[in-house]
Amino acid sequence: MPKIKTHKPTSKRFRISKGGKGKLMRTHQGKSHFRRKKSHTVRSDYDEMFVVDSAGLKRRIKRLAPYLNQKS
Questions:
Q1: What is the pLDDT of residue 47?
Q2: Which runs of E-coded beta strand occur in 1-72?
Q3: Quick one: pLDDT at residue 71?
Q4: Fold topology of 8-64
């Protein structure tokens, strides 16, 4: 059976958490610009990763990036 191509933008936006839990993590949206006028605490909130809770979104990401949880 041939390998499935990975959707590259999906593989760059999502990560599998470290430490054995294997949770799907995403970055905060709106991180790249319009940050100068925001407070320091808001800007530091952009640096943390969030857990993806939606089952439908997890399923969609698994289809787009099937090899995301495998170590390279």
A1: 87
A2: 14-16, 24-26, 50-51
A3: 64
A4: Factor Xa Inhibitor (4.10.410)
